[in-house]
Amino acid sequence: MKKAIIFDMDGLLIDSEPIWREVxxxxxxxxxxxxxxxxxxxxxxxxxxxxxEHWSNKYPEMNLDINSIAQQIIKEVIAEIKLKGEPLSxxxxxxxxVKGMDVQVxxxxxxxxxxxxxxxxxxxxxxYFDVVxxxxxxxxxxxxxxxxxxxxxxxxxxxxxxxxxxxxLNGVIAAKAAKMxxxxxxxxxxxxxxxxxxxxxILNSLEELECTLLENII
Length: 218
Fold this sequence. Notes:
Layout: E1 4-7, H1 17-30, H2 48-58, H3 66-84, H4 91-99, E2 104-109, H5 113-123, E3 131-134, H6 146-155, E4 162-166, H7 169-177, E5 181-184, E6 201-202, H8 211-217
Parallel strand pairs: 1-2, 1-4, 2-3, 4-5, 5-6
């Protein structure tokens, strides 16, 4: 029976959540919506179009152009990732571990394929993944399980035989809704949220993710 391990990307493989928050605050402020970085925690793990829609619904009087603002944020995030994007601790050792296991390996992200490609090419990690997939191709993003269900289908592995590794609560909800096991490694700004306990395992970083832990959970 085939098994699979599916990685989220932002905030798990790359320390990009601060970049997203910084860019979102800057761009929304330019369009008349005053946000603080803590406000951005409300939308962590969502697709960028859904992030803009969230704030558009909260500030309807601003008549935000959702597509235009989303594209501006994507463009600026890509520029910042190229300039200062860094892998989080334990990324390469963890990828080496899972590549040595008898499992399929995938990446499933709310980010666009353009951002995903920027990250995996910057870190030269494309060869680790059997499938790379973005929620931009789905009708709904996380916390809807669609991105995980489609990724499992592309891997030809039952969702029940997959383990998702996530940093955001929306991502954990998506993985569990897909009936996958889930390891949560919460972003430091969200680590106190009790809702993370719906995950099957909670760790502080990828450095704690040893082969024996993966074999036990999968």
